[in-house]
Q: What sequence folds into this?
């Protein structure tokens, strides 16, 4: 395994070689994938529940009597977990809630000119669809990251979809999170068909205005398809395979860094793992440590394939390392360097940042309080991680008095005529004339 990790000297690479090193692998057969996902989306849109049952049988291998999780299954889920597991879920919900409660939804009201008042108010999205994957492993942590901000935003309709297990039931930990967060409508659906069901609605699944949550390439493709349709549903953010970039200097702990790299690698074989370090000796030691730790991982085959596509980049200093990181724009950025906080202001593009040796990315995944639904594939250059504001609409309001129109209306009329829009100008003029004549409504 260690031979698969090549150390690349950043200083010796040309500009095109550097771009190649930081380039994510192109998704295979993108056109074919989109076409197949589109056919599933269209089928579910037309045939509703019947199509959902067929896809669940053919793709998940499960024949479902009911797509929805009933009261008995919710009760059984609570009994399936240990006290320690339920306590851990509760504690994670508590910390995630505490952080997300700080994301203010307070309205803003400003007088921009005498007699002219502008406001911004927040309106919950009416119906939201939450997708919780369960591919190679169930993800109750994702249920927390989606359900908590949806609850805090007070979205009236909250629907959760998650793939069924082979026994036809939903994962009990996911169901427990849903109930703890006040979500009662849960459906045993996965993949593109789940996204289509939430985007368009079926006989059983309510229609959502916006869909949230990570997923595989099928889920991502379906989200893009329904978001491009005016009758579909908006998406939370673009996403791809999960990824981490670790910046480490010679002071970093090789055991810690290797563990962080493998923690990301075990997600999936297309997970992206990048180490940028100022020390060749550290790079060599870390590569060896990755090989040692890999052997004890239950998911070592998956992690090994991800590590095989990983990169180790040697740079002259931490400043250059952060330039590399900003160019890559990772989903997760771990700074294992001396005085990591002093480098934070140099970070421009990252989904979430983890400072210092004692802050593994695992904490952000589960319970530190920040949201783990983050932009990937370089989208961290322009997109932010999920938060309460993603579950509301920000709506502006303006109110003008006659005095305000008399003062600012001439500016509006001049600008309208500057754009040759006399109708716009006239809407102001007729009111100004009414003010002058005293004929106010």
A:
């Amino acid at each position: 395994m260690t031979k698969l990790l090549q150390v690349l000297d950043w200083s010796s690479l040309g500009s095109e070689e550097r771009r190649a090193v930081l380039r994510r692998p192109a998704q295979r057969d993108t056109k074919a994938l989109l076409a197949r996902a589109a056919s599933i989306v269209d089928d579910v849109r037309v045939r509703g529940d019947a199509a959902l049952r067929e896809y669940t049988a053919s793709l998940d291998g499960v024949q479902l009597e009911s797509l929805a999780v009933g009261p008995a299954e919710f009760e059984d889920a609570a009994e399936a977990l240990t006290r320690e597991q339920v306590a851990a879920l509760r504690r994670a919900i508590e910390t995630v809630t505490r952080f997300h409660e700080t994301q203010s939804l307070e309205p803003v009201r400003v007088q921009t000119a005498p007699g002219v008042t502008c406001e911004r108010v927040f309106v919950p999205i009416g119906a939201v669809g939450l997708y919780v994957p369960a591919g190679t492993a169930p993800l109750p942590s994702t249920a927390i990251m989606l359900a908590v901000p949806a609850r805090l935003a007070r979205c009236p309709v909250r629907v959760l979809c998650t793939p069924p297990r082979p026994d036809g039931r939903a994962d009990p930990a996911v169901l427990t999170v849903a109930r703890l967060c006040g979500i009662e409508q849960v459906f045993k659906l996965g993949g593109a068909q789940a996204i289509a069901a939430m985007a368009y609605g079926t006989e059983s699944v309510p229609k959502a205005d916006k869909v949230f949550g990570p997923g595989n390439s099928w889920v991502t493709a379906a989200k893009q398809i329904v978001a491009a349709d005016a009758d579909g549903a908006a998406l939370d953010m673009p996403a791809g395979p999960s990824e981490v970039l670790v910046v480490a200097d010679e002071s970093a702990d090789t055991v810690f860094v290797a563990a962080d790299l493998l923690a990301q690698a075990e997600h999936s074989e297309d997970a992206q793992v990048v180490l940028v370090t100022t020390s060749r000796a550290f790079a060599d030691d870390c590569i060896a440590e990755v090989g040692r730790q890999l052997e004890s991982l239950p998911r070592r085959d998956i992690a090994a394939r991800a590590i095989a596509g990983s990169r180790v980049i040697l740079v002259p200093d931490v400043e250059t390392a952060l330039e590399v990181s900003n160019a890559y724009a990772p989903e997760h950025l771990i700074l294992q360097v001396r005085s990591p906080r002093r480098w934070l202001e140099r970070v421009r593009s990252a989904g979430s940042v983890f400072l210092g040796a004692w802050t593994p990315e695992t904490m952000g995944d589960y319970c530190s309080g920040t949201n783990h639904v983050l932009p990937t594939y370089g989208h961290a250059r322009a997109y932010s991680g999920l938060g309460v504001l993603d579950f509301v609409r920000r709506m502006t309001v303006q109110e003008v008095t006659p005095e305000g129109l008399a003062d600012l209306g001439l500016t509006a009329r001049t600008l309208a005529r500057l754009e040759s829009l006399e109708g716009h100008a006239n809407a102001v003029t007729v009111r100004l004339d009414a003010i002058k004549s005293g004929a106010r409504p």
Observations:
- Residues 30-47 form the longest helix (18 residues).
